[in-house]
Amino acid sequence: MVAGSLALKRRRGLLWFLLIVLALIPLFPLTNFVGHPRWGAIRWIPFQDFSLTKNFLIDTIGNIGWFIVFGYLLHYLVAENSSSVRSIAKVVLMTAGISLSIEFFQVFCRHRTPSMTDVLCNTVGAGLGAYFSTLSYARVPSEPVHITEVKADGPKTPLSNSQS
Fold first, then answer.
1. Using one digit for the tens of pLDDT, what is the confidence trace for 36-93?
2. Per-residue pLDDT for 157 more than 90?
3. What is the number of alpha carbons within 13 Å of residue 113 lying toward its C-beta?
């Protein structure tokens, strides 16, 4: 039992590490950091400069896809097998805060444009990831499945793990 507990702790630790890496990668390269704010560079209104260009689609789809993975893993770690709307809302709020922090960091970086479009796409992606995580919980039974063998001339007998 101790070995199983240790393996679970290692897996959870690895998933937390992966989440931290996923949250920090958008901050790189750190050489863009200039140390003074560029408040005029912020795009406060989501999709204000919307144009159906290749770069805009890559940026939008990339943000959503990146945070689908982030939201899925975060829900898996934080929600503890819950498929409630409250657990999804918790993930969405946590991700909105992380996304706002990333965009705030970009205020101090050259060659980066902080945008509420990114915050919105990141939050939507995390919400979708959390929702997909709840769907995977629905498929995995929370209790062990017991298989019984019914004989025509006798009582039901549970099958052992070696027989099933």
1. 888 888 888 888 877 888 988 898 999 999 999 999 999 988 876 677 888 999 999 9
2. no
3. 12
